Amino acid sequence: MTQEETNPGLVSAAIQAITQHIRVEGLGPGDLLPSEADMTRKLSVSRTVVREAFRSLSAMRLIDMSAGRRASVAKLDIGAMSMVIEHGVTTEQISVHQVYDVRRTIEMRTVALAALRRTDAEAAEIEKYARLMRENCRSPEIVMEHDIAFHEAIAQASHNPVFSLIINAFSGVTRRTWVIGWRTRATEEEQIKMIEGHGDIARAIIAGNPQLAAEHMAAHFDKSVKALIDAGIA
Amino acid sequence: MTQEETNPGLVSAAIQAITQHIRVEGLGPGDLLPSEADMTRKLSVSRTVVREAFRSLSAMRLIDMSAGRRASVAKLDIGAMSMVIEHGVTTEQISVHQVYDVRRTIEMRTVALAALRRTDAEAAEIEKYARLMRENCRSPEIVMEHDIAFHEAIAQASHNPVFSLIINAFSGVTRRTWVIGWRTRATEEEQIKMIEGHGDIARAIIAGNPQLAAEHMAAHFDKSVKALIDAGIA
DNA sequence: GCCCCAAACCTGTATGATATGTTTTCTTGA
DNA sequence: TCAAGAAAACATATCATACAGGTTTGGGGC
């Protein structure tokens, strides 16, 4: 909304009508929306228009659609967010460096929050990914996936879904640049040191020390950014 | 992408094909995409499917569409991002408080970057909004709009479009809660003090003092959040 | 060389048809 | 009486076609 309102066209109006319906009826995740035929009657437009509206909301993952079933309100999902970021990067309107600055800013906060708020299960999960990185240090791809899961778990443990949302939106970019950063760490020793950085973070979270956790996270990002710069990525 | 791949259906495939086209061809903002008819032939699906794909990308503001013209790659825009956030808030999957924590985190960084990187024109713009808030202190709606513009200008001056993107995505939520916070500031004196907080921030940016700017921003957010809590907003 | 207009092309919307998946209802058999 | 299963009602997925406007382009006239 906010900017959809001034958009011409029946489809935008239909999108607005649907989101408004969600708001007015106070619908939550899982609740069913009217069928396309209902909407067609209610808005006095063709099925085509209603369908494009539903489809658009589905593409943004604001609603779930599947054949035979009526659409339903979706659970919070990175959905569109990651597409926007990826679009920005692939069209060179956003640099990888800028993404990392945002990640650093946010993750210094999530890690501090995680140190304060994590449950024991969350702490164990975070520690698990740090360990898995160590154990698979010979397979970059696997290390990467655990790395991403590690940061995601920390965001989760911050207990603020908006942070999770944003961090996850960046994971696509991370996947496309991670290996490059890894390769600049020439020696195996350096690679192990980088992995151990995650261990430091995990321990600080488990110890419930937000200051220390934030410091380790900052150091980790500084090293990562340096690696990307060394690799010639702006 | 990233999660669209596993989605069944021709439309998702078409969306992927289009984004892939943008990537492979190295298209940038303003560049034209194939016509719907072209895509129809290329993908061997009906125009309906292609249209729904285009429309979805348009709803996310990854592409621009208008009658008679072929679609083009869009400039970076909050687009979908704000819709995701709003959806989260209206369906009560995100609390206003959580949004403010994220804003605080990010804006403490943008304000520091702004102090370091702002051009003179940007500094003047920021100062202008602070002044306009002071001059219109009797009209909450107007103060609010200048307040939002103030924070947006700071994000702009950080010279990292990702920050701008995120801050702007929150402006819808801000609009819906701002007045509530304002009302809890019972006396006119308190309201003026709150507005003066913006002046402090502006001056620190102009002075090029990132530390001070961040401190003022933190204080500003702490007061705002306190106001919302006093108003009973979780 | 310039202007104007028509043709070609494109998107926006509507309609109807068919295929297929899901839910509800009703029947039938134990 | 009740439960299993079939049929009907409902819903989305995709396709084909049509026509109304908006935009671009190329040609003709000057």
Q: Helix and strand layout, with pairings?
A:
The structure is a homodimer of 234-residue chains.
Chain A: H1 10-25, H2 36-43, H3 47-59, E1 63-64, E2 72-73, H4 79-90, H5 96-117, H6 120-135, H7 140-157, H8 161-169, H9 171-184, H10 188-207, H11 210-230
Antiparallel strand pairs in A: 1-2
Helix pairs in contact in A: 1-3, 2-3, 4-8, 5-7, 5-10, 5-11, 6-7, 6-10, 7-8, 7-9, 9-11, 10-11
Chain A binds a DNA duplex (30 and 30 nucleotides) through α3.
Write a structural description.
- Two copies of one chain form a homodimer.
- Chain A has 234 residues and is mostly helical.
- Chain A has helices at 10-25, 36-43, 47-59, 79-90, 96-117, 120-135, 140-157, 161-169, 171-184, 188-207, 210-230, and strands at residues 63-64, 72-73.
- Chain A has two domains: 10-73, Arc Repressor Mutant, subunit A, CATH 1.10.10; 82-230, Four Helix Bundle (Hemerythrin (Met), subunit A), CATH 1.20.120.
- The first copy, chain A, is built from eleven helices and two strands, in the order αααββαααααααα.
- In chain A, strand 1 and strand 2 form a beta hairpin.
- In chain A, helix 10 (188-207) packs antiparallel against helix 11.
- The longest helix of chain A has 22 residues, at 96-117.
- The radius of gyration of chain A is 21 Å and the shape is elongated.
- Residues 1-5 of chain A have low confidence and may be disordered.
- At the A-B interface, helix 1, helix 3, helix 4, helix 5 and helix 8 of A face helix 1, helix 3, helix 4, helix 5 and helix 8 of B.
- Chain A binds a DNA duplex (30 and 30 nucleotides) through residues 9-11, 35-37, 45-49, 51, 54, 65-71.
- Chains A, B: It comes from Mesorhizobium qingshengii.
- Chains A, B: Residues 8-76 form the HTH gntR-type domain.
- Chains A, B: GO terms for molecular function: DNA binding; DNA-binding transcription factor activity.
- Chains A, B: Keywords: DNA-binding, Transcription, Transcription regulation.
